[in-house]
């Protein structure tokens, strides 16, 4: 058992007969009244996100997890297949466990958290950013650049990303996996 002082991002806990991963947390100590911890929890079974407030000192049930590096192999319907880079064991995970499945390119390494009690995968941590090639981009209209104008572009995984007007087909761009937004153009 742990208390609210042990809460950190990425911690897996048992709460309301389900397993949740803490996405965000904030310790709040108001001037009047007891302290509390405001959290945003993501269910690892259904993918739903909920907000919850724990009072200070509240006991939480922590799940022991191991983290392993897996390589993404291929998608098959709603199942995504991964291979452990050390043991070469293959697993398939449902699409709703992944944070940004549309940004996952074959061969990408991800960190998979596995419950040590049941040996079941709990969550997949994507790299902070991915570099993907633009396969389709609408042509930019000249004279439309007074403000930060953007256009829609499709990358090689099929995801749609808003990019600046100077991005063309064939360019490689860096995308933030947490927000799915354009970061920069990559020159090779």
TrEMBL record:
Signal peptide: none annotated. Pfam families: EFP (PF01132), EFP_N (PF08207), Elong-fact-P_C (PF09285). Residues 130-185 form the Elongation factor P C-terminal domain. SUPFAM superfamilies: Nucleic acid-binding proteins, Translation proteins SH3-like domain. The keyword Thylakoid does not apply. It is found in: Cytoplasm. Residues 67-122 form the Translation elongation factor P/YeiP central domain. Pathway: Protein biosynthesis; polypeptide chain elongation. One of its GO terms (molecular function) is translation elongation factor activity. Keywords: Cytoplasm, Elongation factor, Protein biosynthesis. HAMAP family: EF_P. Involved in peptide bond synthesis. Stimulates efficient translation and peptide-bond synthesis on native or reconstituted 70S ribosomes in vitro. Probably functions indirectly by altering the affinity of the ribosome for aminoacyl-tRNA, thus increasing their reactivity as acceptors for peptidyl transferase. NCBIfam families: efp, PRK00529.1. Belongs to the elongation factor P family. This is Elongation factor P. It comes from Flavobacterium procerum. The lineage of its organism: Bacteria, Pseudomonadati, Bacteroidota, Flavobacteriia, Flavobacteriales.
């Amino acid at each position: 058992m742990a208390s609210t002082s042990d809460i950190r991002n990425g911690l897996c806990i048992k709460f309301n007969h389900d397993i949740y991963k803490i996405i965000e947390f904030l310790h709040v100590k108001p001037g009047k009244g007891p302290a509390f911890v405001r959290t945003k929890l993501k269910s690892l079974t259904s993918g739903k996100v909920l907000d919850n407030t724990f009072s200070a000192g509240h006991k939480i049930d922590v799940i022991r997890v191991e983290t392993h590096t897996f390589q993404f192999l291929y998608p098959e319907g709603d199942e995504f297949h991964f291979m452990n880079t050390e043991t070469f064991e293959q697993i398939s995970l449902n699409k709703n466990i992944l944070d940004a499945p549309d940004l996952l390119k074959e061969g990408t390494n991800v960190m998979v958290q596995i419950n040590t009690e049941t040996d079941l995968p709990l969550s997949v941590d994507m790299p902070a950013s991915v570099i993907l090639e633009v396969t389709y981009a609408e042509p930019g209209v000249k004279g439309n650049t007074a403000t930060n104008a953007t256009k829609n572009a499709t990358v090689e995984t099929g995801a749609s990303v808003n990019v600046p007007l100077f991005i063309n087909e064939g360019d490689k761009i860096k995308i933030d996996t947490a927000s799915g937004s354009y970061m920069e153009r990559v020159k090779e």
